[in-house]
Amino acid sequence: VPKKCQKAREHFGTVRTQLESLKTKFPTDQYYRFHEHWRFVLQRLVFLAAFLVYLESETLVTREAVAEILGIEADRERGFHLDIEDYLSGVLTLASELARLAVNSVTAGDYSRPLRISTFINELDSGFRLLNLKNDSLRKRYDGLKYDVKKIEEVVYDLSIRGLNKEATVGAGGEK
């Protein structure tokens, strides 16, 4: 995994170059006029950066760190920046991918990773519950997080029932 993460970090150099070029294509005060043109790409890049950081450290990357990885600003007043909604959408995509990773980890024989993913996703869900999201695309994406939480909980539960993970068994209140 560390070798793959290092290779992925090298690709962000190309991304920074492309975003630097994009910044010159429109007036800095008209960011939101053209935002729809790169919105989806930025959300996907946030997901990729967040997934990379998660694989490296099993932590949530901050918006400022993603902006640094991408070579753009975190602050709106400084021009081409990472919009907060784009950041949050990318993080929600990370949650969906981690749900898939939990299932695939069990298939690969890694029974401890789903428990760590479960802890991470539950903390993420708690954070999103604090937000007052409007009834828009971000709210709909957040609603999908509930299904990711449920999917991961089912994986952890199955592991604890089968006695494949001592931590999961103890954490679930069961005895081995």
UniProtKB/TrEMBL annotation:
Mg(2+) binds at residue 97. GO terms for biological process: RNA metabolic process. GO terms for molecular function: endonuclease activity; hydrolase activity; metal ion binding; RNA binding; sequence-specific DNA binding; single-stranded DNA binding. Keywords: Cytoplasm, DNA-binding, Endonuclease, Hydrolase, Magnesium, Metal-binding, Nuclease, Nucleus, RNA-binding. CDD domains: Translin (cd14819). Signal peptide: none annotated. The keyword DNA-binding applies. It is found in: Cytoplasm; Nucleus. Its main location: cytoplasm. It comes from the Eukaryota. GO terms for cellular component: cytoplasm; nucleus. Belongs to the translin family. Ring-shaped heterooctamer of six TSN and two TSNAX subunits, DNA/RNA binding occurs inside the ring. DNA-binding protein that specifically recognizes consensus sequences at the breakpoint junctions in chromosomal translocations, mostly involving immunoglobulin (Ig)/T-cell receptor gene segments. Seems to recognize single-stranded DNA ends generated by staggered breaks occurring at recombination hot spots. This is Translin. It comes from Nyctibius bracteatus (Rufous potoo). The gene is Tsn.
